[in-house]
Amino acid sequence: MADPYSTLGVAKTASEAEIKSAYRKLAKELHPDKNKDNPKASERFSDVTKAYDLLSDKAKRAQFDRGEIDADGNPAMPFGYGGAGFRGDPRAQGGFSGFGNDGADFGDIFEGLFGGRGGGPFGGFGGRSAPPPRGANIPYRLSVSFIDAATQAPQRITLADGGTIDLKLPAGVETGTQMRLAGKGQPGPGGNGDAIVTITVKDHPFFVRDGANIRLDLPVTLAEAVKGAKVKVPTVDGPVMLSIPAGSSSGKVMRLKGKGFSQKGGGRGDQLVRLMVDLPADDAALVKLLGEWRDPRNVRADLGV
Fold first, then answer.
1. CA 248 to chain centre
2. Does the global pTM surpass 0.90?
3. Where in the chain does DSSP place strands (E)?
4. pLDDT confidence band for 300 (50 / 70 / 90)
5. 8 Å CB contact between 88 and 104
6. pLDDT tens sequence across 226-264
7. How far apart (Å, rounded) are the C-alpha atoms in residues 240 and 257?
8. Cα(128)–Cα(115) distance, rounded to whole angstroms?
9. Closest alpha carbon to 136 in 71, 42, 77
10. How far is residue 226 CA from its own chain's centroid?
11. CB 175 within 8 A of CB 185
């Protein structure tokens, strides 16, 4: 994989927030659901996900920046070339020393060449050799319905090995949220990698997310708006009854507490219901009912007209 910073289009000094913002923008643009006829977009989406997986992990990002691992998370130099030159007799000032009557200290030679002593026959290949690499991480994509995301409904995902696992969605889940399943990746000498699940929250036909709140435009009849009424309102938890005050105008917003998205800090947002008076078209009976009635107010006074 290419340099993860280049893949996400950010500088190496980018903050966590900048990296996350760049990833979300690219994830929405390249998501396979929006590019079904473009396999290159799917490949790019996978690269972007892998890059974000590395850079969003503080430890891995630091290792990459120090050159200890490559863009795929594998060790870049397993034996860590450390010291300088060949060293034999410590009393010598340079060159190949210690090969005369004093004998050759091969441990010192390899210590100088590979950067420290180990437990091998010649002092080892580096006292700080890298641990065996873990297996590769496996990326997964999970599409979640709007209502499931709001209510944190359990989700089941099928892994590469054919097994299944039930996931509990985190509070505040949104498109681009990632979940890490430890040890569910590819096997490796140093242990299994992880499964990285990237979530996409689907749009809803009439609910709209606004942070932790949910907005809904609710059609009401003229009679309900004028006289007041109790009407049934859909929520992500199921329908509830809402009391509409008499004399309500279109645009009036009413709040249903605790009917929004789960929040990271606990609790849930609200559902904001905007009343929309829906008048019938060409209704002669309504015209006759109004008769000669006129509203004396200047309802556009605040607009200067």
1. 41
2. no
3. 138-144, 155-158, 164-167, 178-181, 195-201, 208-210, 213-220, 229-233, 240-244, 253-256, 271-277
4. confident
5. yes
6. 999 999 999 999 999 999 999 999 999 999 999 999 998
7. 12
8. 8
9. 71
10. 46
11. no
